[in-house]
Design brief:
- By secondary structure, this protein is an alpha+beta fold.
- The protein folds into three domains: 113 residues, no CATH class; 100 residues, Immunoglobulin-like (Sandwich), CATH 2.60.40.10; 84 residues, no CATH class.
- It is 22% helix and 28% strand.
- It is built from seven helices and 18 strands.
- The strands form five sheets. Strands 11, 12, 14, 15, 16 and 17 form a six-stranded antiparallel sheet that branches.
- A hairpin with a 2-residue loop joins β9 and β10.
Length: 335
Amino acid sequence: ANTSQTGDFASNLFFRVDEGATNYFGGSDDKTMKNFWDNGETNLSDISSGNSSIYTISVAMPASLGNEFQGTTAKFDLIVGFVGTESKVIISGGGGAALAAATAPICNDQAPGSAPTILSVTSGVNSITLTWSEASDPVSYYLIAYGTSPGTYSYGNPNVGGKGTTSYTINSISGGVTYYLVVRAGNGCTPGPFSGEVSTTPGGGFIAGAPAGFLPGVLGATTEELTPSPTPQKGEIKGIEVQTCSCRWFLIVLGEIIALIAYFLVFKNKKTTKLLLLSILIPILTQIGFVLINKCFVYKYLILNNAPDFVCKYFILINFILFLTFLKFWRKRNG
């Protein structure tokens, strides 16, 4: 098999193959690239002569992986072949021969006449609701993509509804993070232009992983069609690096507030220098906990001073302002 990796990297990469809403490999995000290699041939859909189909191949690295995987690689040949009279596509991750015996698929679907226009974006607790006006015909589906920096969209849902769909709610998305979102319409195998970008910051706490239906790098724009050739061809996957560094601050701040309230209630009638010095441990331990829980975020954003979230960017300042506010209130109550 023409595969190679550094260490055990391939066993730690999520790997999936989709055709729209249909999954052919790794549908529950529980399959790795190493599973794909070991699987040998993976059968996809039948493609009749003159028709086409678009497949999305996604490779994602879990945010839980540590620094031991920096500089590692996982390489393999993606060989695409067409066999039989009904053009069944076979992907072989481990090498081998590919046959071509079908007419090259051509996408003749007309693109939507315009982009949808986002009318409103509403944030809830771990949810975002988008409402838009329809794109001009022809339209067969709508796609939503989002990211955590302007103009960069890391995740996409390839089909949030068919023609006539004008609203969609993204559930189970991490709170306290500013998201940038766009909508686009598509007709068959041809996507239309993106809408204008909107941004919002939902409430709620941290939620691991992407919302249901959203996959890394799915934009519906640059997916290449599978075109057979008369001789076996080696190919490569063109992808994007997906790094999910989330910032978890809500429960940390809530814990600090509870600790401060409990501390000052216990010692509400006492006023000594020793107790005041001891209370400083609360914001110090809170800051240490924040750094340990958000190591990836701190390294990627805070050191570079470009954190997209206000609370996380200025957490150390907010932390001690909160402590000083409680301290001032406690001293006022105790004269």
